[in-house]
Amino acid sequence: MYTMDHVPSYIALYEQGILNELAEKLDGMLYSCELCPRKCRVDRHASRDGYCRSGVDPVVSSAQPHFGEEPPLVGSRGSGTIFFTNCNLGCVFCQNYDISHAGHGKTISALDLASLMLNLQARGCLNINTVTPTHMIFSIVKALIYAVPRGLSIPLVYNSGGYDSVETLEMIEDVFDIYMPDFKYFRNGSGEKFSDAADYADVARAAVREMYRQAGDLKTDQRGAAYRGLIVRHLVLPGAMEETIQVIDFIADLSRGIYFNLMDQYRPEYHAREYPSLRRRVTMDEFRRALNHTAGRGMVPAG
Ligand code: SF4
Q1: Number of domains within the chain
Q2: Is residue 113 in contact with ligand 1, taking CB distance under 6 Å?
Q3: Can you give the residue range of the structural domain that contains 232?
Q4: CA-wise closest residue to 99 among 30, 180, 161, 18
């Protein structure tokens, strides 16, 4: 399936006993959770009082092959997508609010999570794509400890909203092969207004730099399947072209080998209509300008 060069990095962490140490450390951190920049310091073994309203066990809304992801993640059998319920952001235009805000999903154990991963691999998925993994990182590491000896061997994707702390990312280095954060805004003011995160832009810039340090440019095998690297997504918002250009420039300055996905599918969902600038979709002209700027900076626009 994979050549020796493409073996997911979590396998070596398992063989060296590092995943066990990491799981123990992460479990301890849940007694006063600072896993993400919210730093709620709540005891997740005893309550769900943190911003993400999550305890220890994962709540999963779905686990299935997904064909709408970026082509290097999909192939012919799909990306093995596991959607975790709840989120550490409060985006007013959330496109998955039933999962991320209404909390729809089923509570499972880390052992169940391992079985979901193995089932997706057995169905031929190219990777395990963990969606909103930030608050569930302990369970993901624990699941790997169960899944690796049972044969899990496909890349693991960290698909987040970009609101990730560098300290946690450093701790989990090499657990994930592919990072795929959103980069929503370049200005903290926009993060405060639209995602309830006044430091979003600063956090996302630092997180994307750290993810790039760990994973580097996106690498694909002879089938065109991604096995390591960084994919950054940016949803173009109506009337926010200046910030979109700043995001594109930031990524291009970091590396033109980053797979950059400019997305045009913004719709005024959830609470978006309460914000005048968010009441419409992005125009073709706006999106074309963003695409042209991406190409002008030497990146292949993937949107
Ligand atoms: S993971 Fe959840 S509880 Fe922990 S700091 Fe982030 S939002 Fe708060």
Answers
A1: 1
A2: no
A3: 4-296
A4: 161
